[in-house]
Design brief:
With 189 residues, this protein is an alpha/beta fold. The protein is built from six helices and six strands, in the order E-H-E-H-E-H-H-H-E-H-E-E. It has a six-stranded mixed beta sheet.
Length: 189
């Protein structure tokens, strides 16, 4: 099975921790998606899945594919809680104690008022495990940077602590070929 993991285009709040906030694409993000749409139209897809957040739904819509799309809550980005919409420097300055705890606890951290990282990882990995049980040749998944990074770690057998090692560009795509008990990263961005 070939998995095409497409991140949504640039949003109206770039550079912020935006997980559960339902924001739209900006003009540049729309252009980014239109640029990759011609490639996506060449794919022979069995199925398409998408996060229900509007930045992903709009990304899928701009691709103008003939395939229907299945919206799935498991493809939502992590909920950053009270850090939603803030930049890295704002978080480290305004919420220093929680920020330091995040650095120390890593995957055991729960975003203040938001989602536990471990819960998010479990949600994403379980979803990919279920998807791979299907008999399909090619699947497009339109989602978020965090979902794609942790999905890649899971699929290719890396510890999730390596997730931040993958830079997923806005409207960037990762392609993974999956077989019985193996997966290979073919393309990144």
């Amino acid at each position: 099975m070939l998995l095409y993991l497409l991140r949504h285009g640039k949003t109206t709040s770039p550079g912020t921790y935006t997980g559960s906030l339902d924001i739209d694409l900006c003009i540049e993000g729309t252009k980014q998606v239109r640029h990759i749409a011609s490639y996506c139209k060449t794919l022979e897809l069995d199925s398409c899945y998408c996060s229900p957040l509007q930045r992903c739904r709009k990304t899928f819509s701009l691709l103008e594919l003939s395939n229907d799309c299945i919206l799935d809550d498991n493809l939502r980005e992590i909920d950053f809680g009270r850090w939603e919409g803030l930049t890295f420097s704002e978080i480290s300055r305004k919420d220093k104690a929680q920020f330091d705890l995040w650095v120390q606890q890593k995957e055991e951290f729960v975003f203040p008022g938001g989602e536990a990282i471990a819960t998010f990882i479990k949600r994403v990995t379980t979803w990919f495990d279920e998807l791979l049980k299907n008999e399909m040749d090619a699947v497009l998944i339109v989602s978020h940077g965090g979902v794609i990074r942790h999905g890649l770690c899971h699929l290719i057998g890396l510890d999730h602590s390596f997730a931040s090692s993958f830079h997923i560009s806005e409207a960037g795509m990762a392609v993974v070929e999956c077989g019985d008990d193996w997966s290979t990263l073919i393309r990144l961005n």
